[in-house]
């Protein structure tokens, strides 16, 4: 499943990928106006609900696919293993 992860001032939501162009246009217009012309966005969420948020409140967005999510899991696993190896080499052991 592909979806759009939209971060805004209060957290993030999972939206339909079709919303990306309208979000990009609204945020770009807000920035290009010198941050003076804000716009209300109505973002359609995966669960069928709608989020109304100002363009100025959107901080970032990205398309998430099964492949990118799997890659993120692998990166996090590798980082944990590297951290564990460094801690053990330094003589630091976690007490569980």
Describe this structure in words.
With 96 residues, this protein is an alpha+beta fold. It has a domain of 63 residues. Helix content is 39%, strand content 29%. It contains 2 helices and 5 strands, in the order ββαβββα. The chain has a 3-stranded antiparallel beta sheet. It has a two-stranded antiparallel sheet with strand order 3-4. A hairpin with a 5-residue loop joins β3 and β4. The protein is elongated. The two termini are 36 Å apart. The model has no long low-confidence stretch (mean pLDDT 92).
Concise account of the structure shown:
With 96 residues, this protein is of the alpha+beta class. It has helices at 20-32, 66-89; strands spanning 3-8, 11-15, 40-44, 50-54, 58-64.
- What is the helical fraction, as a range of percent? 25-40%
List the secondary-structure elements in sequence, H or E: EEHEEEH
Q: Strand portion, in percent?
A: 25-35%
Total number of strands: 5
- Rg, Cα atoms, Å: 19 Å
Low-confidence stretches: none
Shape: elongated
Q: For the largest beta sheet, what order do the strands appear in spatially?
A: 2-1-5
How far is it from the N-terminal to the C-terminal residue, by CA? 36 Å
Helix/strand/pairing class, anyone?
alpha+beta
**What about the largest sheet?**
3 strands, antiparallel
Defining traits:
3-stranded antiparallel beta sheet; alpha+beta; 96 residues; 2 helices; 5 strands
List the helices and strands and how they pair.
Elements: E1 3-8, E2 11-15, H1 20-32, E3 40-44, E4 50-54, E5 58-64, H2 66-89
Antiparallel strand pairs: 1-2, 1-5, 3-4
């Amino acid at each position: 499943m592909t979806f759009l992860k939209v971060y805004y001032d209060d957290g993030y939501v999972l939206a339909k990928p079709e919303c990306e162009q309208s979000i990009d246009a609204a945020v770009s217009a807000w920035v290009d106006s010198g941050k003076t012309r804000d716009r209300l966005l109505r973002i359609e969420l995966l669960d069928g609900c709608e989020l109304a948020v100002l363009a100025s409140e959107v901080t970032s967005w990205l398309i998430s696919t099964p492949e990118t999510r799997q890659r993120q899991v692998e990166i996090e696993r590798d980082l944990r293993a590297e951290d564990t190896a460094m801690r053990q080499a330094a003589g630091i052991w976690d007490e569980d």
